[in-house]
Amino acid sequence: MERPAAPPASELLALPVLGALVVDTGRGDRVGEFRGVAGPYWSLRPVGGGTEWEAEPHRVRPALLMEQLRARTARLNARSRGEVL
Predict the structure, then answer these.
(1) Rounded Cα gap, residues 52 and 14, in angstroms
(2) pLDDT tens across 38-61, in order?
(3) Closest by alpha carbon to 35, among 48, 23, 49, 45?
(4) Cα–Cα distance measured from residue 81 to residue 10, given in angstroms and rounded to the nearest whole number
(5) CB 27: neighbour CB atoms within 10 A?
(6) 29 by DSSP, 3-state: which?
């Protein structure tokens, strides 16, 4: 009897809620918003907008409260300086 193939890693990991803040450990602990699944990768984008990037699901973890606050504060500070809309 043959064993069924193991599901891809992206199916073994619980998907974050759309818009949840996560950390991509494969890119220097970059914080991003979860945007969805693109093939074997997860699509993330910078907090508050910007160009999305793809991350390997096994290198993504939920953002700690401190990391969430830091990312949102950096966005607000950039906005107050007129660097972003």
Answers:
(1) 20
(2) 999 999 999 988 899 999 999 999
(3) 45
(4) 39
(5) 15
(6) coil
Reported residue count of the chain is: 85
Indicate the residue type of 35.
R
Element (H, E) at 30: strand 30-38
Question: Which residue shows structure tokens 């793809």?
Answer: 54
The tens digit of pLDDT for each residue in 2-33 reads 655 555 554 557 899 999 999 999 999 999 99
The residues pairing with 30 across neighbouring beta strands, listed in sequence order, are: 24
Q: Are 31 and 23 in contact (CB under 8 A)?
A: yes
**Cα–Cα dist 22/15, whole Å:** 11
Q: Is the pTM here over 0.85, yes or no?
A: no
CA distance 28 to 8: 24
* Helix, strand, coil fractions of the chain, as percent rounded to 5: 30, 30, 40
